[in-house]
Amino acid sequence: MRIDLHCHSTASDGTDTPAELVRHAAAAGLDVVALTDHDTTRGYAAATAALPEGLTLVTGAELSCRVDGVSMHLLAYLFDPEEPALLAERELVRDDRVPRAQAMIAKLNGLGVPVTWEQVERIAGGGSVGRPHVASALVELGVVATVSDAFTDEWLADGGRAFVEKHETDPFEAIRLVKSAGGVTVFAHPAAAKRGRTVPESTIAELAAAGLDGIEVDHMDHDTDTRARLRGLAKELGLLTTGSSDYHGSRKAVALGEYTTDPEVYGEIVRRATGAFPVPGTGGA
User: Fold this and answer.
1) Separation of alpha carbons 80 and 180, rounded Å
2) Most C-beta atoms within 10 A of its C-beta, which of 107, 186, 212, 216?
3) Would you say 21 and 246 are in contact if contact means Cβ atoms under 8 Å apart?
């Protein structure tokens, strides 16, 4: 089985619609794909309706969190999307995205970059607005060559000249909320230092004690030595280890299924979940 447990659609900051995402996943030879848009579940219905036969959909979300001043992302799988407390927290995070993006635009304007809210809103296309959309605007304007080039101290990286903080959930509270909604939690790209400051291993140990299920090890932002270190940490803490593409369509240079999760780990995630079940494809439109 080929299993990719971290993918984004136009419901957040990917460039494939949810329907396109599942069709592309099937074409890439995947057996299981997870839809994990940022702080939203709005892509579920369209992805399910289009799900090709032979492909299984895992519903999820990538939750924006912050601990001790450091941003981190928590992948949540197979939770009940209508559970009130988790839904309210996702909406709180999502509602803060628009004023945050507008504040970043104002900072960029102050730096002489003629980006506009209308431009960013067009790029987002109705999805949850985020830094990648602002970064794409910088690419369109020729300020940077690629989206990744916008995530530097000069522009949009944490603490960068145009960076603006947003509401982010305490990860210990996020774990509690996801568990209460019957879901499973995995710390996304925990050692992606190129994105900014990372959470120390001591905090990962505390998160594990609080119920964290796993960490994402095989990821484009982790080199070979980092993956080995994370596997050792996971073994020490009794955590599951996943691998995922973190696919964003054309916004990132990574292919669906470029990194995958072991079938036994996937089986354990499904076994632990009580809020929702994987959706088998029956041949969507």
Assistant:
1) 9
2) 186
3) no
Tokens 């696919």 locate to 247
Q: How many CB atoms lie within 10 A of CB 154?
A: 14
pLDDT at 283 > cutoff 80: no
Q: What distances in angstroms separate CA 138 from CA 35, 118, 155, 159, 194, one per listed residue? A: 27, 13, 9, 18, 19
Q: What is the DSSP letter of 52?
A: P
State the Cα–Cα distance between residues 135 and 151, nearest whole angstrom. Answer: 8
160: number of Cβ within 10 Å: 18
- What span, in angstroms and rounded, lies between the C-alpha atoms of 197 and 67? 11
Distance CA 247, CA 254 (A): 6
Predicted pLDDT of residue 216: 98
Helix, strand or coil for residue 185? strand
Q: Which of 91, 153, 96, 159 is nearest to 129 (CA)?
A: 96
Report the distance separating Cα 161 and Cα 70, nearest Å: 17
H/E stretch holding 9 reads none
Q: How far apart are CA 12 and CA 136, in angstroms?
A: 13
The three-state secondary structure class of 160 is coil
Measured torsion, CA atoms of residues 11, 12, 14, 20, in degrees rounded to the nearest 10: -10
pLDDT of residue 284: 60
Quote the pTM value.
Answer: 0.87
CA atoms within 13 A on the CB side of 275: 23
Amino acid sitting at position 257: G
Q: Is the pLDDT of residue 8 over 70?
A: yes
Helices (H), 34-113: 44-49, 84-95, 97-110
Rounded to the nearest 10 degrees, how much is the dihedral formed by the CA atoms of 231, 235, 236, 239? 100
Distance CA 180, CA 183 (A): 7
Q: Which of 168, 191, 177 is nearest to 241 (CA)?
A: 191
What's the sign of the alpha-carbon dihedral 128, 252, 103, 122?
A: negative
